[in-house]
Amino acid sequence: MVVSEDVINESSALVELEKKLDVCFENKQLLNVAVTHSSYANGKKNIKFNERLEFLGDSVLQISISEYLFLNYSKKTEGELTKRRSLIVCENSLYEIAKKWDLGKYIRMSKGEEITGGRERVSILADCVEAIIAAIYIDCGFEKAREFVLSNFKDTIDKAIKNKIILDYKTKLQEVMQKNGDVNIQYDLIKYEGPPHRRKFYTQVSVNDKTLGNGTGYSKKESEQSAAKTALKELEKNNG
């Protein structure tokens, strides 16, 4: 259930989010601002939104990950560290973490933004994660913020070091399948449902007419990436 933007200010909603984050804010207003999208503030006086926090949070995230990689992977070159960091500190990684917290339901946004899918929009969720990191930094200091980052990005860091992060599942699927020669990879839109502003697409991916995976998304591109991701998981499972 989506928390109404009219009651997000209530302490119960913020406490619920604090529990998910495992952080107790001394200044609850910082968290409140961190989950306020700019659309919510339009036409309202004295409403702060999270763009400035997002700016700061990006820097805190960058230095936390950079320091960790520098201290723990002394044999890797500057270029290798930069590549790994770019895999960790990216919109997709932030989005995946936001989904774990079910962050979308806590964000304050306008009705217009909400009905066009704002609560699940990758950029909005990713920006909100960075804003939350900044709020923790301001409220609790750098040590707590760094601890929070490393705890929540642990799996992402491990995958980046092992080169297991995939940003483009369609390209990866093509690379895997074509190791054994040319193949015909086809993405078919099976159906779509929902109103125009909230349409959900269902896609099926086949290789040489054999179905390998199905996916969904709120755009054709997103549903194709989802289908390719499912296909890769199936191939990995079948190959042990």
Automatic annotation (TrEMBL):
GO BP term (any one): rRNA processing
Residue positions binding Mg(2+): E54, D127, E130
Predominant location category: cytoplasm
Gene Ontology annotations for the cellular component aspect, listed alphabetically: cytoplasm
Domain (DRBM) ranges: 168-237
Region (Disordered): 211-240
Pfam families to which the protein is assigned, alphabetical: dsrm, Ribonucleas_3_3
PROSITE patterns given in the database record: DS_RBD (PS50137), RNASE_3_1 (PS00517), RNASE_3_2 (PS50142)
Active site: D58, E130
Residue ranges constituting the RNase III domain according to the UniProt record: 14-141
A GO term for molecular function: identical protein binding
Listed EC numbers: 3.1.26.3
Compositional bias (Basic and acidic residues): 231-240
Localization per Swiss-Prot or TrEMBL: Cytoplasm
Catalytic activity of the protein: Endonucleolytic cleavage to 5'-phosphomonoester
Quaternary data: Homodimer.
Name listed for the protein in its UniProt record: Ribonuclease 3
Native source organism of the sequence: Clostridium muellerianum
